[in-house]
Amino acid sequence: MADFDVIVVGAGYAGTVAAYELAKAGKSVLVVERGNYAGAKNMTGGRIYSHSLKKVFPNFEQDSPVERRITHERISLMDPEANFTIDFTSKALKQEGQDSYSVLSAVYDQWLAEQAENAGAEIIYGIPVEDLIMEGDSVKGVIAGEDSLTAEITILADGVNSLLTAKAVGAKKPKPSEIAVGVKELIELPSGVIEDRFLCNPGEGAAWLFAGDATHGHIGGGFMYTNKDSISLGLVATISDLVGATRPIYQMMEDFKKHPAVAPLVRGGKVVEYSGHMVSEGGYAMVPKLVTNGCMITGDAAMLCMNLGYCVRGMDFAVASGQMAAQAAIEALDAGSVDEASLHRYVDLLENSFVLRELKQYRRFPHFMESTTRIFKEYPAMVKEIMNSMFVVDGKPADPLKKKIMDPVKEVGVTTVLKDAMGGMKAL
Amino acid sequence: MIDPIDVNVDEKLSLNRYEVDEENAHIRLKDEAECPNFQEEFDKLVIACPAALYRRDEEGRPSFDYAGCLECGTCRIICGDTILDYWRYPGPTMGVEYRWG
After folding, report:
1. Does A39 reach chain B within 8 Å, measured CB to CB?
2. DSSP-derived 3-state class of residue A120
3. What is the distance between the terminal CA atoms of chain A, rounded to a whole angstrom?
4. Orientation of helix A315-335 relative to helix A340-351, angle to 10°
C-alpha cells in the first residue's frame, strides 16, 4: 500500500491544477514543492490565456489574483536608433474564455495551491525532491529530504529545468539551441500611470514583444507586460546564439530598458525584483516520452511551450496538461492499474486537445526562427530605413515612394525577403 | 571579447530575497587544469548567466560565486557536460525566493 494515491512534484501551474483535480475527486494527493511557498521559485513573463484555466476554475476572473486583462497586443521591430510598433486592439481579445491576463507567478501559484489545499490536497514546502523511487522501470514515489514517500502515481511538474525526467523517462538534457534564458525586472508604477502610458482602461493592459535590438540582434526578443501596479520588462535569448554575444544578458537587459522607445514607459518606476528562468523553445521535437509505469510528465517539465514570435504560450499548456494528467490518474486508480498502458490515456487526451495538436502544427517554426536571423537585425534596420525615408523631411528633393520602399528592401535582397516571408508562413 | 559593463548587477540581485547555504555549494566548477577548454566555456557563462555568477576580474581571471543564483539552470545547459562538476538545486528552504515571480 503506497503512502499516497498520487505525489505531485512541483506546485506551479501544472502541479497545483493536477493536485486540485485529484483532491476534488477524493484521491489522496501530496504535492512536494522546493520553494518555501508555491511560486517562490517560479517566474513568468507573463501572461496566461484563459481558455484552459476556465475549464478548471470557471470564475477565475473574479476569484483569482490576475493582474490585468490584455486588450492591446503590441509588436515592435527594434533597431538601435528606431522602433516600429504595431498596436492591435479588438473586441475579440476581450471575450470571455478567449481573453488573456497578465499574472505574476509567485502570487498566482499561491492562489492555485490554496485551491488545491482547500480541495483536500496536502502540500509540503521547502523540500526539493532529490530522486525518484524506482522499481525496475516503474516509478514508485519520491525521495525528498530524509523521507522516502511512495505513491501509486507520481506526476512530475517540476519545471523546465527538471532533473527528474531523465530518470523517469530518459529525457535528454535540452540542447542550447532548444532553450532560451529569460530575465525580467519587475518595475512598480501607479496603476493610473500605467493606464495612461499604455492607453488602457482600468483593469486592462498591454502585452508587448520586441524583436531586434532588444537582444542586440541575437535570436530572442524583449517583452513587456502591464500588471496592476507594475510592469514586467524582460528579455528572452536562445542560449546557443546568446553565448556568441559580446555583452552579458544582464547588460542587454539594461540597454533594452534604456532604449529610447522603452525608457519613457518605465520612467520613474521602482525596480523591486530581478528574476531569471529558462524557456523551452524547441517545440514538439523537444517533448519527451510523457508517461511510464506509475508516472506522467506535465507542463514545462514536458517542454509544453510554444513561441511563435508574436505569441508566446506555456501556462495554458501547463494548466491543461495538469488537468489531463489528473483525469488519466483518476481513471487509472479507479481501474486499479497504473502501468504505462493505462496512463497512456494522458497522452491520448493531450493528442486530442490543443496541447499536442498545436505543438505539432507549429513544429517547423522553431527551426525557421533559428535559421532566419535577419528577423533580429536586417529587418528592423530595413523597416527603419523605409520609415525614415517616409517620415524624415529635410527639404531635399524626394524620391518616389516606390524607390523609398524598395531601396532598403533591395539592400537585404528582394528574393531573400520573399523567401523569408514564405518560410515563416509555411512554418506557421 | 566582452564589451564593457556599466550595469551594477549586484544591485539588481540585492532586490531579491535569498537564503544562502554557506555550507554547501549547489553548483561547482571543475578544476581549470582538468578542462582544456575551460576559458572558452567560462566565457559562455559570463555572457549567459543572468545573475553574473561567472565573472572575470580586471586581469581577466575567472571567478565564481553561487550566492546570487536565480536557479534558472542556464549554466547546466551550456556547461553541464564540460566545466561544471555538478549542478543541483539548493538544499531545503535555501536559495532565491521570488515575491512576485
Report:
1. yes
2. coil
3. 49
4. 140
B91: which chain A residues are within 8 Å (Cβ-Cβ)? Answer: 128
ipTM of the complex: 0.97
CATH topology of domain A179-280: D-Amino Acid Oxidase; Chain A, domain 2 (3.30.9)
Strand A138-144 relative to strand A4-9, pairing: unpaired
Rounded Cα distance between A86 and A211, Å, is 12
- Find, in chain A, the residue whose alpha carbon is nearest to that of B81: A173
Tell me how far apart the alpha carbons of residues A179 and A177 are, in angstroms, rounded to a whole number.
6
Please count the residue pairs, one from chain A and one from chain B, whose beta carbons lie less than 8 angstroms apart: 141
User: Nearest-CA neighbor of A277 among A107, A50, A42, A80?
Assistant: A42
The CATH homologous superfamily to which domain A4-41+104-171+285-361 belongs is: FAD/NAD(P)-binding domain (3.50.50.60)
Q: Which residues contact A195 (CB under 8 A, 6 or more apart)?
A: A201, A202, A204
> In Å, how far is B34's CA from the nearest CA of chain A?
22
**Domains and their CATH numbers in chain B:** 15-97 (3.30.70.20)
Residue A131, CA distances (Å) to A34, A140, A303 in order = 13, 11, 20
Contact A230, A272 (CB under 8 A): yes
Contact A272 B15 (CB under 8 A): yes
Q: Where are the alpha helices (DSSP H) in chain B?
A: 9-13, 38-48, 74-79
Instruction: Return per-residue pLDDT of chain B as tens, 101 residues.
Output: 788 899 999 999 999 999 999 999 999 999 999 999 999 999 999 999 999 999 999 899 999 999 999 999 999 999 999 999 999 999 999 999 999 99
A97 Cβ under 8 Å from any chain B Cβ: no
Residues of A in contact with B7 (CB under 8 A): 250-251, 253-254
Q: Which residues numbered 112-151 in A keep a CB inside 8 Å of some CB on B? A: 126-128, 145
Q: Does residue A134 contact residue A167 with C-beta atoms inside 8 Å?
A: yes
Cβ-defined contact of B3 to A251 (cutoff 8 Å): yes
